[in-house]
Write a structure and sequence with these properties.
29% of the residues lie in helices and 29% in strands. The protein is α+β, with helices and mostly antiparallel strands and 285 residues long. Bound molecules: pyridoxal-5'-phosphate.
């Protein structure tokens, strides 16, 4: 695999980052994952905008323009011809700051920019989209700036491991009695035809797939209610589902051991997945 590191396209074995990099020492880095289907980028503009926002919130330099980012994404697709479907991972850290120090390094320290392809063939036909997934709930013990997409993913990793141990697919975070989001996705329930999802705030990541889906749903005259919901409401809902760049729209059929309605994917989630795939394919670049 050919990867991108600080302006160079090199084989992955040659891509090395300093032990003093703040991404490594302090988790001082942000990231994005953009889906690639048939060699085309999905929701690219949304990911670029959110990257700029994350960097800005952390007072980190934004080293690359939209055009430069697009060129790097396309170059990686071109230089890795076996890569057709999957995602492109992008990470920008505050760079190699020398000896460990809590204070940010001087402005002339350059950020470390890494991008690489992650192939996942058959991404569109993941059997989980047909069967739906099962989730457990765990307390949301993350920091309170979840709107910034940082690489500090230790707690989401622990939550995923808890889900694995419970023989389910994912964990939903709960705070003050309400669901915030999934370990790496935004979550929704459907009740009496209404799509219910938590409003944007610092409590959740502002999902790019969420933004696109809510736009398509409102264009299709579906009713959206942005408000928090509880685990009990999810268990009593007609349907549940989640969104993320790598899983699009995927039904959730069990929450904390209780089936959602019949325990099968519901018609709204299935329809929303179709709409999302159709519309995103049209605007892929
Ligand atoms: N929420 C969290 C915590 C995430 O990590 C992600 C994706 O990585 C999402 C939501 C979904 O965001 P997007 O649709 O931009 O992939």
């Amino acid at each position: 695999r050919i990867v991108y590191l600080n302006g160079e396209y090199i084989p992955e074995e040659e891509a090395k980052v300093s032990i003093f990099d703040r991404g490594f020492v302090m988790g001082d880095a942000v990231y994005e994952v953009t889906a690639v289907i048939g060699g085309k980028l999905w929701d690219f503009e949304g990911h670029v905008k959110r990257l700029a926002r994350s960097l800005n919130e952390l007072e980190m330099q934004n080293p690359l323009s939209r055009e430069e980012l697009l060129e790097i994404h396309r170059e990686l697709i071109a230089r890795n011809p076996e890569f057709i479907d999957g995602g492109i991972y992008l990470q920008i850290s505050r760079g190699n700051a020398g000896d460990r120090d809590f204070a940010f390094p001087p402005a002339d320290v350059k950020p470390t920019v890494v991008l690489y392809t992650q192939a996942k063939n058959g991404l569109l036909d993941d059997p989980k989209a047909k069967k739906g997934i099962k989730v457990i709930s765990v307390p949301d013990l993350r920091w309170h700036r979840r709107d910034i997409k940082t690489v500090q993913l230790l707690y989401p990793s622990l939550a995923k491991m808890a889900a694995k141990k419970a023989h389910v697919d994912d964990a939903w975070f709960v705070e003050d009695g309400f669901v915030t989001e999934g370990s790496s996705n935004n979550v929704y329930i459907v009740k009496n035809g209404k799509i219910i999802t938590r409003p944007l705030s610092n409590d959740i990541l502002h999902g790019i797939t969420r933004a696109a889906l809510l736009r398509y749903a409102s264009e299709a005259q579906m009713t959206i209610e942005e408000r928090p919901f509880t685990i009990e409401e999810a268990q009593a809902a007609d349907e549940a589902f989640f969104t993320s760049a790598s899983a699009f729209v995927t039904p959730v059929v069990e929450v904390d051991g209780k089936p959602v309605a019949s325990g099968k994917p519901g018609p709204v989630a299935v329809r929303l997945r179709e709409i999302y795939l159709e519309e995103s394919a049209k605007s892929a670049i």
